[in-house]
Automatic annotation (TrEMBL), chain A:
Annotated compartments: Cytoplasm
Organism: Microcebus murinus
InterPro entries in the record: Rab-GAP-TBC_dom, Rab-GAP_TBC_sf
Name under which the protein is recorded: TBC1 domain family member 15
UniProt domain Rab-GAP TBC: residue ranges: 100-310
Assigned GO CC terms: cytoplasm
Organism taxonomic ancestry: Eukaryota, Metazoa, Chordata, Craniata, Vertebrata
Automatic annotation (TrEMBL), chain B:
UniProt keyword terms in alphabetical order: Cell membrane, GTP-binding, Hydrolase, Lipoprotein, Magnesium, Membrane, Metal-binding, Methylation, Nucleotide-binding, Prenylation, Protein transport, Transport
Cofactor(s) essential for the protein: Mg(2+)
A Gene Ontology molecular function term of the record: G protein activity
Gene this protein is translated from: RAB15
Organism: Microcebus murinus
Keyword Cytoplasm: no
Role of this protein: The small GTPases Rab are key regulators of intracellular membrane trafficking, from the formation of transport vesicles to their fusion with membranes. Rabs cycle between an inactive GDP-bound form and an active GTP-bound form that is able to recruit to membranes different sets of downstream effectors directly responsible for vesicle formation, movement, tethering and fusion. RAB15 may act in concert with RAB3A in regulating aspects of synaptic vesicle membrane flow within the nerve terminal.
Protein name from the UniProt record: Ras-related protein Rab-15
SMART domains linked: RAB, RAN, RAS, RHO
Superkingdom in the source lineage: Eukaryota
Length: 444, 212
């Protein structure tokens, strides 16, 4: 069985007409490179025996997906009870996922989507909550405001945070009317919220990229306290991206690679042959959730759709797959190398259509949800293993994993490679291997 | 079709966040300056072809994020560089002091024989100056580097410093380049040669495509 964990040859899909003699970078090398690039990353095959060998999976037809109009103020209001609780939350999230929100609604709805307000809270409770959160905010703000110059001289971390924040506030969305011009009050708010966040989470402090995440929130909230708490909630999701070891980035790059391999192993092999298999060119996309890739207004749409947490976990990775799929042809036909791939992807900024991308990403998710033989690693990433996906008949006894109450732990303790039924019997050269140990890289 | 360039070099810009790395690059490649540029996330690069000593040199300049947190990523690009700009801001003592740390990173991660040059940027901000010109010269001397005070804002010493580093790289690779001028058909690209090491079947001309 050990041999299965050492499957290193990816073979170009012959149907795609690629030359199989083209040099390919085996996953072992890719793992080495990635762990080289990101110390602490554990994807060494010797240490991690949990490889899953699967035959190329037919994902079936991709359904056509339609998007709807943004949720209107009327639709929203209709779903609020007399005390201000939001009704039919699941349905509301569905509608937001399908069409986003009309702009007038964002200031209200984002607070729920981000988890600042509980969906089932009454208006009264929210007023109380806001009062309490306002006090809490200003207490933290006073903490850094009251540090004297002398004190700050002896506090290098605070000094460094402040200096970085000052630099970044001056170069965050300055072409947007809300932040343009000298002495724009929006800049002071950005600054104060980021400084206060340092007091809220001094260990993390300020890391570049965070001002990009805050700017749209402040733009929509138009209120310092609300923007802060929405930002704090958003940072709960994004925290790992900015930590010292960048665990969030490592995990996501590996997960993305797993998904991409299932969708298009030919493209993956191509990227590997160009020393780009570790997908580092997606770094900016993932770090700040596409903030630099779309126009400001499109980002508002994209983020609110992603905050619904529909239709599956890690939908943003399927958004990556959707964009990459659109660029694949050009990258491969023009035979882009390491440099050109990075340049091409960086230059997609502001040229990607958000609605098309969302349609495509959702269609991919539907395809995967429907697929009966989705690799375990992919189920894990998309959070599908409980009910949606069941493994077909199998004589390897591995399919029980799918029905376990705690599949993650069962999965983690699995020291043998998982084989799908057909994979075990089929020696076809189109075998692909999938990292099945992704969950290990995600701290509980 | 006429040959677009004779040789390809990779240069790298490093230094603290906000010292003006991206601005130096934009001034050099596009002759543009925006005082409120966006911060760099990850890495980016631009290209420009210049002629030095009758050789058409295509330079690929890699621009990196300055914050320490991202250095695990940006360090990966050091090994691909033949020349490195170490940039500080003359109005920031701290960015000057950090040059030491940047130099030791270069020693650790960049290939041997990499050419380095020290840049004190924002020379137009005389009233905010915290680092004297002679301090810059002194440090450069210690490390055996050339030194320029530059201003992306007023376009001071931009072309000069980029050309100088390119010359230094050319000199360092003189041997490999000797045959170049005599053999017009030889499209030697050092950067490519290095990249192809260890993957002999790799695509031969991929990085020669011109996308600018």
């Amino acid at each position: 069985m050990v041999g299965f964990s050492k499957v290193t040859n990816y073979i170009f899909d012959s149907l795609r007409g690629n030359d199989p003699s083209t040099h390919q970078r085996p996953p072992s090398e890719m793992a080495d490179f990635l762990s080289d690039a990101i110390p602490g990353l554990k994807i060494n095959q010797q240490e991690e025996p949990g490889f899953e060998v699967i035959t190329r999976i037919d994902l079936g037809d991709r359904p056509v997906v339609q998007r709807r109009e943004p949720v209107s103020l009327e639709e929203w209001t209709k779903n609020i009870d007399s005390e201000g609780r939001i009704l039919n939350v699941d349905n509301m999230k569905q509608m937001i996922f399908r069409g986003g929100l009309s702009h007038a609604l964002r200031k209200q709805a984002w607070k729920f989507l981000l988890g600042y307000f509980p969906w089932d809270s009454t208006k009264e409770e929210r007023t109380q909550l806001q009062k309490q959160k306002t006090d809490e905010y200003f207490r933290m703000k006073l903490q850094w405001k009251s540090v004297s110059e002398e004190q700050e001289k002896r506090n290098s971390r605070l000094r460094d945070y402040r200096s970085l924040i000052e630099k970044d506030v001056n170069r965050t969305d300055r072409t947007n009317k809300f932040y343009e011009g000298q002495d724009n009050p929006g800049l002071i708010l950005l600054h104060d919220i980021l400084m206060t966040y340092c007091m809220y989470d001094f260990d993390l402090g300020y890391v570049q990229g965070m001002s990009d995440l805050l700017s749209p929130l402040l733009y929509v909230m138009e209120n310092e306290v609300d923007a802060f708490w929405c930002f704090a909630s958003y940072m709960d999701q994004m925290h790992q991206n900015f930590e010292e070891q960048m665990q969030g980035m490592k995990t996501q790059l590996i997960q993305l690679s797993t998904l991409l391999r299932l969708l298009d192993s030919g493209f993956c092999s191509y990227l590997e042959s160009q020393d780009s298999g570790y997908l580092y060119f997606c770094f900016r996309w993932l770090l700040i959730r596409f903030k630099r890739e779309f126009s400001f207004l499109d980002i508002l749409r994209l983020w609110e759709v992603m905050w619904t947490e529909l239709p599956c976990k890690n939908f943003h990775l399927l958004v990556c797959c959707a964009i990459l799929e659109s660029e694949k042809q050009q990258i491969m036909e023009k035979h882009y190398g390491f440099n050109e791939i990075l340049k091409h992807i960086n230059e997609l900024s502001m040229k990607i259509d958000v609605e098309d991308t969302l349609c495509k990403a959702e269609a991919i998710s539907l395809q995967m949800v429907k697929c009966k033989e989705l690799p375990q690693a992919v189920c894990e990433i998309l959070g599908l293993q409980d009910s949606e996906v069941t493994t077909p008949d199998s004589d390897t006894g591995e399919d029980e994993n799918c029905g376990l109450a705690h599949p993650t732990s069962a999965f983690q303790s699995n020291t043998l490679p998982t084989l799908t039924a057909s994979g075990a019997r089929d020696d076809s050269p189109t075998q692909i291997s999938v990292f099945s140990d992704v969950s290990r890289l995600t701290p509980a | 079709m006429a040959k677009q360039y004779d040789v390809l070099f990779r240069l790298l810009l490093i230094g603290d966040s906000g010292v003006g790395k991206t601005c130096l690059l934009c001034r050099f490649t596009d002759n543009e300056f925006h005082s409120s540029h966006i911060s760099t996330i990850g890495v980016d690069f631009k290209m420009k072809t210049i002629e030095v000593d009758g050789i058409k040199v295509r330079i690929q300049i890699w621009d990196t994020a300055g914050q320490e947190r991202y250095q695990t990523i940006t360090k990966q690009y050091y090994r691909r560089a033949q020349g490195i700009f170490l940039v500080y801001d003359i109005s920031s003592e701290r960015s000057y002091q950090h040059i030491m740390k940047w130099v030791s990173d270069v020693d650790e991660y960049a290939p041997e024989g990499v050419q380095k040059i020290l840049i004190g940027n924002k020379a137009d901000e005389e009233q905010k100056r915290q680092v004297g010109r002679e301090q810059g010269q002194q440090l450069a001397k210690e490390y055996g580097m050339d030194f320029y005070e530059t201003s992306a804002c007023t376009n001071l010493n931009i072309k000069e410093s980029f050309t100088r580093l390119t010359e230094l790289v050319l000199q360092a690779h003189r041997k490999e380049l000797e045959g170049l001028r005599t053999r017009a058909s030889n499209e030697l690209a050092l950067a490519e040669l290095e990249e192809e090491e260890g993957k002999p079947d790799g695509p031969a001309n991929s990085s020669k495509t011109c996308w600018c």
